[in-house]
Amino acid sequence: MSKKMNSIARFKHYDTLLSCPICHTAMAITDSAICEQGHNFDFSKQGYLNLLVQNNATHYDKELFESRRELITESAFFTPLLERLTTIINTYHQTKPLTLVDGGCGEGSHVAYLKETLGDKLAIAFGTDIAKEGILSAAKHYPTVSWLVADLANMPFANQTIDIILNILSPANYKEFDRMLTQEGCVIKIVPQSNYLKELRHYFFADTTKADYSNDDTVALFEGQFPDFTRETINYTTQLNAQQLSHLLHMTPLTWNLEEDLIQQFIAKSDGIITADFEILIGKK
């Protein structure tokens, strides 16, 4: 079965979870996705579903998503974080397999890892991103996840249908998240802490405001939506080789406006040790 047909079959099995992004009525899957009012959305040949109401220009291109995928799959930079997320989701009380959405999934490597490691714990895992290039890469490499090009401000899921929403180093839309969550559902948001990528901050931005970082405002917004939220931190270092450093430097927004010569100078001088410093915020409906 082709990627497209395999994806259509999986979407069809769970089409009650979907909602039209135009009129918000229920959707049915045939060889396309069509809602009760007749709005029709086609599957790509790679198997993803584009549910954007209008095209949106983004700063994200194919090179960025390939750098991110290669960093995640070829190094251990995110591995301890993903292992911890697996443990957290495994402790989730359930009477049936869970529905999960990664909102702002990029090229999808994080949610694909979780789908593989959690297995039957998840009934279905969706990855959504507004950047078509990211979802195109995701659909090419990870056929067990259901991929959608979609806007966080207008998510194509019916009310109270999603058990777990992931939001990893990505913008959030808590109004939409709250609408989508089941009564026992939760949002798991990953935000950087002050030491995240400190080696890059100290090298490129010494004596500037970018040398230091605080997540206080982000955490306060999350607490405003989920007053009884829980939080935990995870901090570690990983040694990256020159190629992996290059992937990291081309992936992170910290270095997007830097000259390539400066990036190559850092790679040549660096010992490859990079700090990962995250806070995991868990909010229940």
TrEMBL record:
Methyltransferase domain segment(s): 101-170
Keywords: Metal-binding, Methyltransferase, S-adenosyl-L-methionine, Transferase, Zinc
Stretch forming the signal peptide: none
Keyword Methyltransferase among record annotations: yes
An MF annotation (GO) of this entry: metal ion binding
Domain of life: Bacteria
SUPFAM superfamilies named among the record's database cross-references: S-adenosyl-L-methionine-dependent methyltransferases
InterPro entries named in the record: Methyltransf_25 (IPR041698), RlmA_N (IPR048647), rRNA_m1G-MeTrfase_A_prd (IPR016718), SAM-dependent_MTases_sf (IPR029063)
Residues reported in the UniProt entry to bind S-adenosyl-L-methionine: 78, 107-108, 196
Residues that bind Zn(2+): 20, 23, 35, 39
UniProt KW Zinc keyword: yes
Gene Ontology biological process terms, A to Z: methylation
Stretches assigned to the 23S rRNA (guanine(745)-N(1))-methyltransferase N-terminal domain: 19-52
The protein, known as: SAM-dependent methyltransferase
Organism: Brochothrix thermosphacta (Microbacterium thermosphactum)
